[in-house]
């Protein structure tokens, strides 16, 4: 986050200068977007409705009408539900895989194989298994979130120094004590990294997954605005997707800052 | 020595490891006893199996043949009666120094509330002169401070036996002197038994009741009783008569080690 050249100047003035650069970046982004629409880069007919000005007024309209909340809440709910289910499964599995070499060998090929498959490839299977609707979407999101969580947790549990374990044993620790006081806390930074990756990829997969025939959600709404030729609303929805994703990632970075220990 | 004073009995212990190019024999038929409240130092060249011997007593590893008895009972695994201080620092990096010292209480599920745990941990941090750094994390400590913290962590579980593996290696000489004073004081006040592994002969002569010289081939070359009077640190060390005896005894130990090295050269030749 620090500037490449010169770094962050110290003190209040330096912080102010950092802020100025962040804000300037956002303004530049908006300027490029406006320019793209002014120069008709989105096509002669529709560039007007793709402009940031149109998007912001559509956003206000969507907030007032309640449409935004109506579609954002189910999206966030689906991501959080699938993440929770993924965490519940991935953390114990990851610890076992990381800590026991044999379990790692048993699962290595299967896990590396599975994680490379886009969850969207499972779409037809999900629909056959769970039908069209919330469960299918949640299942697909779960399937995408689980791999970074398992692999990072196992990496963390695998890094546990044998020295810590031996020391604990000479201090009278039993297996459960070692698991609770040594292995799990040791893996926390990697678990959080895994969570951050999982949140990122879930949020990205959410949009196509919500195009699977659910009646609400931001992904659904993208298709809906297209069908109603409301490109200003489409652009506003894209902005909202980006903004919520950014906030989720910020929350994760805060967690990492707060709970990840460093060597 | 009367029978009931023997605390650890190492009997005909050999240890070898299977490697790709055949077995490596680390210890060969080692037999010795450690008495209650004794300060026993094991010296020898690097790679002669000193640390292995300590691991066997700790119960972290097991002899290939022979047996180790603790109070007459065979060692079957690690236990809180034998606290081990490792060559590397084994502090948990996500805990503060204080919380590291409290770790042993948590493992043993002692009936203590948070306040009691904290007070007890502080007592041991003060004992090693590290009370002022209680709320620091290990990453903020110097090498000497990490040693002290590890020492406090192990002392807090009040082990009958302290196993110290190169515990003061790689410390600067001033810190080392302080640590020698502290371990001597603690040993005198807590009345525990110490088995101390080092390759520093000065250290061995300063601290020990007896010195075991372990040879390059994993056999015990000599068991030497250290007759130097205590206290041996601080002003006592400056007495010329004491100094003379100190150097003479160190010479004796050195000669055993040299002889061992010489023997090996002859055999190779």
UniProtKB/TrEMBL annotation, chain A:
PROSITE patterns: ABC_TM1. It is a multi-pass membrane protein. SUPFAM superfamilies: MetI-like (SSF161098). Keywords: Cell membrane, Membrane, Transmembrane, Transmembrane helix, Transport. Signal peptide: none annotated. Residues 76-252 form the ABC transmembrane type-1 domain. GO terms for cellular component: plasma membrane. It is found in: Cell membrane. Belongs to the binding-protein-dependent transport system permease family. This is ABC transporter permease. It comes from Chlorobaculum thiosulfatiphilum.
